[in-house]
Amino acid sequence: MKMQTMTLEDLKPADYNPRKDLQPGDPEYEKLKRSLDTFGSDNNRK
C-alpha cells in the first residue's frame, strides 16, 4: 500500500460524491433543519 501526505488544496472531490452544498432555502436544507429542530442531534453517541 502506498501512502502519501497531501494538502487539502490538492484533494479533488469525486464527481459521483452525493454531498451537496446545502443553503438556507433549499428544500433538502429546510427538511434537515426541521428534523434537527424537532428531534435534535446526538453528537455524544459513540
Strand content: under 5%
**Alpha plus pi helix count:** 1
Level of helix content?
25-40%
Task: Give Rg in angstroms.
Answer: 17 Å
pLDDT average, as an integer? 87
Question: What summary fits the major beta sheet?
Answer: none
Coarse shape: elongated
Q: Structural class, please?
A: mainly alpha
- List segments where confidence is low: pLDDT < 50 over at least 5 consecutive residues: none
Order of SSEs, N→C? H
According to DSSP, the number of beta strands is: 0
What is the CA–CA distance across the termini? 29 Å
Brief write-up:
This protein is an all-alpha fold. It has one helix spanning 27-39.
Detailed description of the structure:
The model has no long low-confidence stretch (mean pLDDT 87). The protein is elongated. It starts with 26 loop residues before the first helix and ends in a 7-residue tail after the last helix. It is an all-alpha fold. The protein contains one helix and no strands.
